[in-house]
Amino acid sequence: MARKFFVGGNFKSNGTVASIKSIIEHLNNAKLNPNVEVAIAPPAIYLLLANEITRKDIAIAAQNIFDKGNGAYTGEISAEQLKDAGIHWVLIGHSERRALLGESDKFIASKTKAALAQGLSVILCIGESLEQREAGVTIDVVTSQLAAVAEEVSDWSKIVVAYEPVWAIGTGKVATTAQAQEVHAAIRAWLKENVSEKAAEETRILYGGSVTDKNSKELAQQPDVDGFLVGGASLKPAFVDIINSAA
Ligand code: PEP
């Protein structure tokens, strides 16, 4: 089965009402390859606005959820609330949250389970630090991040995996096509061995980390690169070129 190319835009904690409207207006007027699935993840406070004004062939994603339902969890947003608000996608496990907020593999797995239980689709972010890459443990790190999720979740049909080497995020230092392809192939092999052949064949594996319109075409040609998760460049007009760089 051919995997539909997927491009996500992670706005991180950037934007104002005015700038989010302007980014979305640009996307609304752009000619986008219909064979590419697109999702944008604005900050939580702009999710409803984005959902209202964005063209319907672009999905809106939250950047995070909590792993509990509604209740006494001040400041958190539940999967139920996202669903109620018509937001069908959520980013889970972004390395900035893992590093800055101490989110563990176990917590990320628990959030993934909570999201799937409400029928949400998940962009599950994994990736190694520079020290881990230099120590030669990249594959061990990403597969143990996946294994934590596999302990909680058996159906991977609503999960898109985003491989994002931490050293490449927001640094301008993109992984080489060979580095990306090697890890993506290892992730697919892990899915085959530990989840199912179907999950290995059908799960989209995105690359993230300093993707721009200058490097996206070459990365997109790799057989196991099924799309991108884009941070900084998703705030710029050239995001459209990244979306349209599908091989
Ligand atoms: C990200 O935030 O997921 C990301 C990949 O950021 P950037 O594209 O800016 O490196």
Automatic annotation (TrEMBL):
Key word Glycoprotein present: no
Catalyses which reaction(s): D-glyceraldehyde 3-phosphate = dihydroxyacetone phosphate
Gene Ontology, cellular component aspect: cytosol
UniProt-listed Enzyme Commission number(s): 5.3.1.1
Stretches that traverse the bilayer: none
Domain of life: Eukaryota
Pfam families associated with the record: TIM
GO biological process: gluconeogenesis; glyceraldehyde-3-phosphate biosynthetic process; glycerol catabolic process; glycolytic process
Molecular function terms from GO: triose-phosphate isomerase activity
Keywords: Gluconeogenesis, Glycolysis, Isomerase
CDD domains according to UniProt: TIM
Pathway(s) it belongs to: Carbohydrate biosynthesis; gluconeogenesis; Carbohydrate degradation; glycolysis; D-glyceraldehyde 3-phosphate from glycerone phosphate: step 1/1
HAMAP family: TIM_B
Family: Belongs to the triosephosphate isomerase family.
Known partners and oligomeric status: Homodimer.
Protein name (database record): Triosephosphate isomerase
